[in-house]
Amino acid sequence: MIDLNQYLDPVCLDRPGVEPLKGSSAFPHNVAVNTGNEPLADPAGLAVAIIGVPDDRNSSNAGASQAPDAIRKSLYSFSRLPGRLKVADLGNLRPGASFDDTIAGLSDVLLELLSKNVVPVVIGGTSALMPAIDRALSAGKEKWSLVSVDSRIDFTAEKRSPDSLNWMNDLIYRSGSCLSHLSAIGHQTYLTDQQVVNRFNRRHYDMMRIGEVRAAVHETEPLFRDAAAAVFDIGSVRQSDAPGAILTSANGFYGEEICLLARYAGLSDNLKIFSVLEVNPTLDNRMQTSQLAAQLIWFFLEGFSQKQYEVTFLSDQSSNRFTRYHVTLSDLEGEAIFIKSMITDRWWIEIRDTRGQQHYLACSYEDYLMANRDQVPGRWTRALLRYGH
User: Fold this and answer.
1) Which of 43-47, 177-181, 212-216, 328-332 bottoms out in mean pLDDT, i.e. has the lowest?
2) Facing residues of 337 across strands?
3) Which of 31, 126, 250, 374 is the most exposed place for a label (fewest CB within 10 A)?
């Protein structure tokens, strides 16, 4: 157990330009804010904790360190969250003397929150912070999966020191990492090395180009449902909607689309860490990007407040909550078992690995329809390959 007060600086609500709305209808009304008036209490009992990380080292995105407070300025002007979700804004992580110290400090804070079943919302800062998330989730030696929403795939074939443009290398190849699966959402072909795509395909990762997402955005929901962490790079949004980023593109997600993806992340049963990175207020236009990043956080929290925990009940065949559908496919031995929630209309596929262990892969209604047409869904094939079939 660590003392969070030694790691975090309080939120300064008196800072010029940061003036949260007053009254019971405003966002801060049902959010506990660390203002420094008294020491931080034990986070146990919280559902979500917001942490800013004002550090932009190991990246070319100088100015991103100003993002946490800029995002808060917009977030605190929004309406209150629905329901009685227990959320706290713990303030900003104190940057270390070196960037490695920042990574170590953030890992400590994340581990402390995860040990208390609190979901951290990390406001960066840059993608160079991702090794801290990996270290926190890998500390328990349990396999975990990641969803990355980005216009690029931050992986390089060449060996070099970890930074914000090759952070995936550290997660995939670090000996202590327990990352078992990665889903890349929203990458643009002309910004992506095809050799990297081929490498990821050989690893049976799930990859959806932005065109594929736009054609069927609901198909991303199962990817978030199976993920332990979700990282949103604001550069995945088109430049006209989010100009405050170092690597922008004329194409990308619209603001409404990226907010829907954030809501999917909030609804996920398995998600343990959510992060919004690469916002640069020094490049922004009238706080447009900071406001969109704040909306991502708000929609994540709104989805979180509507969360239905169902994964732990999937194996209970006596439960009236689920309906099981048995489908015979000519390319498979035996039958496929699809499970539908009668409450949320969500779907899963039941899978057994080579050791006989049972797994539940999140899927969509379209996957079930494919199986009924005697076609094996792609996400199922990739999962079977990952499990050694």
Assistant:
1) 328-332
2) 326, 350
3) 250
H helices of the chain, in order, are: 67-75, 99-115, 130-138, 167-173, 194-202, 210-215, 221-225, 255-267, 288-305, 365-372, 378-386
Do 269 and 310 touch, CB atoms closer than 8 A? yes
**Residue type (1 letter), 187:** H
In angstroms, rounded to a whole number, what is the distance separating the alpha carbons of residues 131 and 137?
A: 10
Residue with tokens 């199962």: 222
Each residue's pLDDT tens digit, 93-135: 999 999 999 999 999 999 999 999 999 999 999 999 999 999 9
Q: In angstroms, what CA-CA distances link 196 with 174, 188, 227?
A: 18, 13, 21
Integer Cα distance of 74 and 20 in angstroms = 9
CATH class of the domain at 4-305: alpha beta
Burial state string for 164-183 with b = 16 or more CB within 10 A and e = fewer than 16: bbbbbbbbbeeeebbbebbb
Report if pTM > 0.85.
Answer: yes
Question: What dihedral do alpha carbons 38, 39, 45, 47 form, nearest 10°?
Answer: 90
107 to 1, 135, 160, 371: CA distances (angstroms): 13, 6, 22, 42
Could you count the other beta carbons within 10 Å of the beta carbon of residue 323?
11
CA torsion sign, 280 to 285 to 289 to 295?
positive
Which one has a higher pLDDT value, 40 or 55? 55
Q: Domain map of the chain by residue range?
A: 4-305, 313-386
Handedness of CA 296, 301, 303, 308 (dihedral sign): positive
CA 242 – CA 233 distance, rounded (Å): 11
